TrEMBL record:
It comes from Loktanella fryxellensis. InterPro entries: CsbD, YjbJ_sf. Residues 10-21 have a biased composition (Low complexity). Belongs to the UPF0337 (CsbD) family. Residues 6-56 form the CsbD-like domain. It comes from the Bacteria. This is Uncharacterized conserved protein YjbJ, UPF0337 family. Residues 38-50 have a biased composition (Polar residues). The lineage of its organism: Bacteria, Pseudomonadati, Pseudomonadota, Alphaproteobacteria, Rhodobacterales. SUPFAM superfamilies: Hypothetical protein YjbJ. It holds the Pfam family CsbD.
Amino acid sequence: MGEFADKAKAAANKVAGSAKEAVGKATDNDRLEAEGQAQKTKGDVQNATGTVKGALGDKI
């Protein structure tokens, strides 16, 4: 995957993670809240990967 694909997936994971986290908080569902936090973290990692790929010209 290239920089754009990684960053697009990162954005999707961050949005979905935020939604899960909010629903988990609103319903006192600790498991769903934790899943949301984990998904947002996954998005952060994907975004960083995309940034590195962009800096290296997608050669990794």
